[in-house]
Write the C-alpha cells for this entry.
Amino acid sequence: MSTNGKSKVVEVLTELNQFVHDGLEGYERAAKESTDSLRQDVYRRFSQQRLAFANELNQVIQQHGGSPERDTTAKGKLYRQWMDFKATITGSNEEAILGSCIYGEEWAQKAYRDALDHELPAEVRGIILRQREASTDVLTHLHQLREAAGFAPAPGGLPAAIASPVASKPLRTALFAAAGAAGAALIYGLVTKRISTGGLVAAVSSLTKKKNNNQRKG
C-alpha cells in the first residue's frame, strides 16, 4: 500500500476511534449512574465491547504507521458536560441515562457510515462493517429496553437525556427553551468560529461546577 493510502487509513480510523471512545466513556458513566442492576450489567457489557473495538482499531492504526488513539471527540466532551449541567438541575434518572446512551449510539452509527464513505482496503472495511453491525444491535437493544420500561421518546425531537420526567412541567418547558437557545448559540459559535470547541467545553464545565457549588452551600 502507498504512503498516502496508509495515511488515509490512519486518518479515518483515528477519527472513528474517537467516537468509539465516546461510547466507552458514555457506557462507563451510565453504569455508574444507573441504580438498576440489570441495566448496569448491560452498560458495562457495552463499555467492554467499545474497549475491544478501540483496541482493534488501534492495532490497525499502528499497522499503518499511526499512533494509538485514546481521546474522545470534542462533541462528545461537550455533550457529557451538558449532561452534567442538566443533572444538577433536574437530577439523573433511568430514562435520562438510557436516552443518553441511545443518543450516543445514533452518533456512533453516523461515524461508522462516514468512515465507510472513504476508499479503504477490504480488510479495513470488513472491520468497520463488523463493528457497525454490532453497534446496530446495541442500538436495537437500547430501544427495546426503553420500550420495555415504558419510557416515551423525548418531546419535540429532543433526546430523552435532556427531557427529564422528574422536573415539573414549567421547569421542563424552561429547560427545552434554554436547550434550544443554547443549541442555536453553540452551533452559531462553532460555524462562525467565534467560539472554539475547547472554549465551549470549558464554559459548560464551569457552569456545572458553579451549580454544584451553589447546591452544596445551600
